[in-house]
Amino acid sequence: MPETVIQYLLNRLKQLGIRDIFGVPGDYAFPINNAICDDKKLRWIGCCNELNAAYAADGYARINGMSALSTTFGVGELSTLCGMAGSYAEHNIVFHVVGMPSMSTQEKHAIVHHELGNGEFDLFMNMATPVVCAKTMLTPENCVNEVERVIAAALEQHRPVYIAIPKNYVNENVLFCPAIANVPVKSGHEVLEEVVSVIINKLSNAKKACIMPGIFVDRFGLKDLTTDVVNASGLPYVTMAMDKSVLDETNSSYLGLYSGQLVNPEIRDFVESCDCILAIGAILSDINMGGIGRSTARLDKSRIINIMPSDVHIGHAEYTNLKMSDVLNELGKKLHKRTDVSGPVGKRPIMPKVDAGNLITADYLYPSYANFFKQDDIILVDLGTSFYGLLPIF
Length: 394
Known about the structure:
Rossmann fold, 5-stranded mixed sheet
C-alpha cells in the first residue's frame, strides 16, 4: 500500500526511536496533527504554547537522543524560535514539522492569515535558517530524498532540522524515485594517524596528565568509546559543570568536579598542574571554567588537547576533517596504560551541626538537598544561586 508524505516522515521518525511528538494544533497543521493522533505507535503531547513545546522537545531530546515538534505556519513556528535556538546551541536533535498553506495558495502569493500580508511564504523558513542545520519543504516528488537528507544532516551535526509540508501535500502518496545516497563523513586517514600519534606521545610523556570528558560525549552518543579511552589510558578524569555525569562516576578513575576557583581546591590544584589535559568534547565556556562572564580557571592552552565533533585542537594547532568517534576508537586501541598518575578525590562539604532554632544557611541548605537525591534522578537547576550552591555537592 502506498505511503503518504506524512506517513513516510512519521515512519522514519519512529525508526529513529521517537514515540512522542510535542506541539500545538493549528489549521494549516491539522492534517499533520490528525496523522500523528491516528498513528497507534505515536503519542501527541499538546502543550499550552509553542515555546513550551519547543523546550519540552529539547528536554526530551536530552534524555531520548532526539525528539519531534509540530506547529502551524507563521505564528506557531515563530513562537518556537527561542527553544530551537537553544537546541541548536546545545547540539540537540529536534525535528520541527511545520504545516504550511497549500501550494496553490503559495503560488498565487495570496494574502492569508498567519503571513505578513505580503504573500511571501518562505519568509519564516528563512528566519529559522540560523538555528537549524537543514531545512526542506516536502512534496510527493521529493519526499524520500529530502527526508533522508535532513535526517542525515541531523545525525551528523546533532542539531535541529526544519521540515515544512504544504497542507494539500500531507496526505498525497509519495512518488518513489531512486534514493540519493547520503555518504557519511569520514576522517582523513593521514591526519587521523598523525593526530592519534601526537596525542599518545603527549599523554605518554607528560609527568602528570588527566582526562576531561565533555558534553559532546553525551550528545553524540560516545560514552562507551570515551570510557574505553579512559580505561586504556589509566589516567584519572574530572568533569566540568556542564559535563556532569557524561561518564559513569562510580569508575575508580573519577575524581570529581573541576570548576576553576569555585569548588574542590584539591582537584583544581591537580588539574591546573597537569602537563597535559585530554579534553573530549568539552566546551571551555565561562560557566564550565568557573564563572559567569569570566573564567576563574588557570589552564594553559598549550597543555590542552580537545577532541571535538569534527576537529581536534592540540595546544594552538587545529586539525580538521576528523570525526570524534574515529579518534576515540583509535586511541582506545593504541593508548599505553599508565599506573603512575593519580589525583585527589573531591570532598563533599560537611553539613554543619545545627539546632532547631538556628537560621537556615546555604551551608546547611544545599547538603540537605543532596540527601534527597537518589540514583538515576534527573536534577534541574536554575543557572544562578541554586547552580552555584549545588556545585560543591555534585
